[in-house]
Write a structure and sequence with these properties.
The structure holds 2 protein chains of 2 kinds. The longest helix of chain A has 16 residues, at 181-196. Chain A is built from 9 helices and 14 strands. By secondary structure, chain A is α/β, with parallel strands linked by helices. In chain A, helix 3 crosses helix 4 (127-133), helix 3 (105-118) packs parallel to helix 6 (151-162) and helix 6 runs parallel beside helix 7 (181-196). In chain B, helix 2 runs antiparallel to helix 25 (881-910).
Amino acid sequence: MTSAVTCRGLVYIYRLEGYDVVALGGVDLDIAPGESVALLGPSGSGKSTLLSLLAGLIRPAAGRASIDDIDLAKASEAELARMRATMVGVVLQGAERNLLPYLTAEQNVRFAQRAALAHGSNNLPSPRDVLSMVGLSIRGKLRQRPAQMSPGERQRLALAVALAHRPGLLLVDEPTSQLDTSARDEIVLALESVRRYGTTVVVVTHDPEVGARMGRTVTIRDGRVGAEGQLGEEFALVGRDGSVHLPPEVLAILPPGTRLRVHAGADGTVTLVPASELSQSTLEVA
Amino acid sequence: MTGWSVMLRGIRYRSGRSLVVLFLAAFATIAAVLAPAYGRAAEQSVLTDAVRSAPQAATSLTISAESSAAGAGSGSYDPAQQPVAEAKTVVDDAFQRAPHLAKVVDRPITSLETESQAALANGERHIALLAWRLGFCAQVKVVTGACVVDAEQAMVSERSAAETKLKVGDYITARPAKGEGAGRRLQVVGTYAPKDPAAVYWGNSTYFSHAPGARLDAIFTGSEEDVRLPSATGIMAKLTYPVKPDEMRLDVMPALRSELGSLGLALNAAELRLDTALASIVDGVAKDQAALASSVPIIAVPLLLIAWVVLFILVAAVTEERGPELALARLRGFPQARAARFGFGETLLLIVLGAPLGLAAGLGLAELTARLVLANGTHVEPRWPVFAAAIAGLLIAAAAAWLATRRTFGSGVLALLRRVPQRAGRRAGVIEAVVVTLAVAGGVVALRDRQSPLALLAPAAIAVVAGIIAGRVLVMWSKMRLAIARRRGSIPGILAAAQLARRPGAARLVVVLTAAVALASFAAASWDVAAKARARHAEESLGAATVYRVAAPHPQALIAAVAAAEPTGRAMAVVRTDEQYGQGRVELIGVQSELLGNVALWRGHDGAALERLGGQLRDGAGKPAALGQDILVRVTANGLGEVPLRLGAMISAVGQPPTVVWLGDVKAGQRDYAAPLPACAAAGSCRFAGLAVGRMATLTGPIRATLTVHEVRSAGAPAQVRLSEGEVWRTDNERNPTAKVTVQPGSVLNLSIDSGGPGDVIVSYLDTPAKLPVYLSGIVPGDGDDFSFPSFADTQQAFTVIGRSGTLPRAGAHALMFDLGLAVRAASATAGLADASDLRYEVWASRDATPALATKLADQGIGVVGTQTIQTEMQQLGRRAPALSFRLYLLAGIAAAGLALGVLALSRRLGAADRRAELASLRATGVRTRTLRRALRRERMVSIVLPLLIGLAAGVGAAYLMLPGVALVTVGTATPLEGLWPTDFGVAALPVVVAAAILVVFAGLFSSGGLLRGGAR
């Protein structure tokens, strides 16, 4: 099963100490079914907020977000719960937060599957198959509780729990934080395995190596999509409103507030010329 | 894997918290169940106590028939003249229609008795009760000879046989004591001594009232027919059905009352009379039972509320802790209902499991309390109200727990995952305002009517308000201390104040602890005050350290017996009766005033004051005009009429009505008129009661004479007859309304007599003051301080008030107290008190009287039918309604305080890991251990001492406010509180509560170090 994600002008505002804070200021994003996307960006840029919106945990203040044909702004709580039980799997940051500490690995997977069963889903994979997907198929591991596992195993178990109902979309928040290199590699391998099954995967991460292993990277800056990357190369994106997020090194040359003349060349290049200076800070864009 | 297995695994994972929720649920059920279980047991106890403590004669069903003059003449049906078995058949038949009554009574004791005159072979005649009792032989020890088994056989008591020199084989002739009937010859076949004169078998009859020279113990016959002396009236046939106190159950009371009424009517139809005080005894305890029924549930309310509030707080805390798990369930897409089941299921299961545990524990606790405190044999009865209360407790606990989870369940997934809990905000303040308003309003209503059971809610209301105030004070004080500590740069102060100011949990716990301590201290203070009130009431109602209720033939016999049994003067005879006056009754109590100072206990009167009072009661008493074996009256007679007259002396023998002994025909001039008085040979057995002038034989015509009495002598010495006081000589116009006698006292007494009526002229002599001094409580039953009122005899007695008091010992607030000797002398001038069946006889003994007094009284012929001491009185008061309610309040208060302290300890334990982490991180930043220890101690001091101080103050203040006007000892009677407040630190409930509070403070302080062990690790 695989799902598509569509966001158009997605806005999310929250209130903090009496002030409205715009966490997402108009996100446009399309993720094709089966695609693997890493959401990158500095802390506070809105990555986790976007993930929470896509999981149906919060409602957008404006704009549209949909997973397949489910409009996340208009769906009821029951529909969102059903979506999370059947179509979307979520992995929270910190493996322990995804697991019930008093259940074994197998029981945690079964617990997650109970939600899907409650919504009438049949044909769920066996917990053993789910765990083998993430490399936890050893017999002894099935009966271990989370506290008895290594950090990497716990994170993989958290992945397995989110995959228990064979979702079309997997949302993962910082899967490799607080893990050492080998554990991180285990997680990346697990994610690749999930991808091979055709599940659409969206991962929020600070780790550029993890991002590089995903098919596509989307950089979120100041609540908007600032750039995208593919096969290791990053590109600035022209937004629907024509705005372009300049990379940080360019911003150092053309700080915010700089007035520019934009010259489009015949060869497809675009030159940005600051209005106060003539040639020193001319920027050509091809 | 099912939802049940997840639930059970979760419970096991959180075993500590789960156990606490289980315990709290059980506790709430215990509190709910305790009210109906304890209440019913207490009501039963009050009933059982009342029936057990009442005299057996009062509770027994006595069915009797007394032979009438017509019946004695065999002219009409007389059940007393028929075999007793016939009457028993009638009664058995009536009991068939009264099954509840039949169940509570024991087998009957049948008897037949009549007052007789036993004539011996040597011509002596003695008064004695002639009796037949079924089962007599088993109740006596045969001293000589054999027990009576057949007709015309008799047994006399060993001591009566010794006095009269009767032996086995002798014959006596029993004749009616009144009337001139023929006698019945009975052979003495043995002598007896009763195994236990005070046994229930003997009832209240005066069988063993041997008085030397006056009366023998009862003579028992082998056949009931022997008692039916020819032409005897006053034959009493009795069937006495003793009541079995343990069979008197609450359930059957209504049916019992109804059956008593119908049984009486049925027996009346068969010429039988039913006498019993059972109905009035049962009605008497109805007030206590009603008070218990209304107060016990109300007392349980604060305990229930605290249990539910604590459960609410704990479930809210546990649910908040499980926030991430709930978030997980919602994240996985569980439907709302399933997510709620996942979140609430563990708690609900524990509450449901706690209910039967609480039910069993509540019943067990009520049973334990019943065995320790209530009347013997009282047990808890698990009836439907108990189970209904358990179910109600369970439902309300579940509701409280559900409400506790609402906030957490209503939070979003991300909010549940947040680590820092949101503040409660304004909503908590609104709830507090509503609760305080309701509590204040409820308290005011309750204070207006302190006799109402709702008044018991006022302390709970005060406790709630005190708790809320304490919570607010804590936060305000902490914020203030935080600001001060910041200015001073005091790190311990900052740390301590910040903890208390910013954590809502601390304030909630302070609210609960303060309310619980307020309840406990109110309960303890009330218990102490009520216990003192009971002790005071016991002394006042008893009148002496020990009071023996006795059976005596007449007051003089009692006085003589007491003097013989306790010659040191540490016991005194007391005779009581009561008379109707207006809408109520006046208690009359005659005491040996010369012993009042030694024996009586009377609040506000010490021994010296009582001696003075006793002297005042005897004021004006002259010596009794005692007579010996003869009497001589020297009289000069003049002015005689035509009708020959004779002169007589009125002689009052102990226990007998005054009789006239004729001294001789009146002749003109001075003569000595004398006669022997063989019945007065025993010293002090007779007194001079007046003079009589009558016509000789069958003559008629007016009585005229002028008599000058020079002297009255007896046994060769002048009798103490006051000729010079006119007031002590009175014409008895009841016997002869036409008699006119002019009395001129002086060195000789001149009597001018003129009577036209048929009767003799009697001039009574009073060897008592004309007006008996009396101490009064209540209003004067008459006009002014001098009034007339019936005394021990049926005739009016003149009294003069010498003092007043609010209550008289053992006589209450509407009573007259006078000297017993004087009252008996006055009454016996006109009546024989042996016939006065309305007199109640008691012996009051001081603390240092001989412990064997009961036995010694029995040796003197005075049977003890009941004994009360201050201790037993206090025990009985402790089992009556107000005390039982206060006891439950004390238990509830202690339980509430224990619960609150347990919650405090638990919250510390549950939060210990987090606190350790906080402290460790502070140590890692360089804060010294000593500083942290000081901060912890300050924090603990404030969070414990503040609620303890406010709670204690609120509880004791509530007691000062509430107790005046509340019935502390008996239902419906407010008790004045002067001198009842605890003023010392003896062993009492309030000092124990204070000591426990101090211990808690120290324990809290010293346990704070545990959090700092292990270093920054």
